[in-house]
Automatic annotation (TrEMBL):
The keyword Oxidoreductase does not apply. It comes from Microbacterium hominis. This is dITP/XTP pyrophosphatase. Homodimer. Binds 1 Mg(2+) ion per subunit.
């Protein structure tokens, strides 16, 4: 039986993404979704919100819990939407509306002032006798396209163009395969820092 780790999210996309990332280094770990009540995410940083979610999932299930708080941070907006990325257009968490509002706010901003980065902060909370809490972070630099492109990924992926792509062949994450994204994303970078911690589970 694989060791189970609960991921503090009701988003099946994130569960699939985390399972794929985890499997690359810890195939013996099974990432399962969280079926408990959603805690109030009232932190003002990614780390604070990740810990709130991971603590709630660990307390509810008794399992080691992972929680990711992530978002897109746009330089010209002073780092916004940041922790408010999922709610940028309101509490409905409407990804299409969020993306449209962000593009509208940047409509008059030209390159090279469209720099942005995806940030992922992952908390690992282990309950019980060996209780512990750890937080790691991954950043994925890039810039925002003027219009969405591609149907892959979710959230802001169709407008995010990662750095370090060949000239003339730059694509949004919405145009990347899941395998490409899982290898390079902010979550993959955060998970690289988390992997040594999972080795203790």
């Amino acid at each position: 039986m694989p060791r189970q780790v609960v991921l503090a999210t009701h988003n099946p996309h994130k569960v699939e993404e985390f399972q794929a990332i985890v499997a690359a280094t810890r195939p013996d770990l099974e990432v399962i979704g969280y079926d408990g009540p959603e805690p109030v995410e009232d932190g003002v940083t990614f780390a604070a919100n990740a810990l709130i979610k991971a603590r709630a999932a660990a307390a509810h299930t008794g399992l080691p819990a992972l929680a990711d708080d992530s978002g897109i941070c746009v330089d010209v907006l002073g780092g916004a939407p940041g922790v408010f990325s999922a709610y940028w257009a309101g509490h409905a968490k409407d990804a299409t509306a969020n993306l449209s509002l962000l593009l509208d706010q940047l409509a008059d901003i030209a390159d090279p002032h469209r720099a942005a980065q995806f940030v992922s902060t992952i908390a690992l909370v282990v309950p019980g006798a060996d209780a512990s809490e750890r937080v790691v972070e991954g950043r994925w630099p890039g810039r925002l396209a003027n219009a969405p492109a591609g149907t892959g990924g979710f959230g802001y992926d169709p407008v995010f163009i990662p750095d370090d792509q060949p000239d003339g062949a730059q694509r949004t994450v919405g145009q990347w395969s899941a395998q490409e994204k899982n290898a390079a994303s902010h979550r993959a970078r955060a998970f690289a820092a988390l992997a040594p911690l999972l080795a203790t589970l």
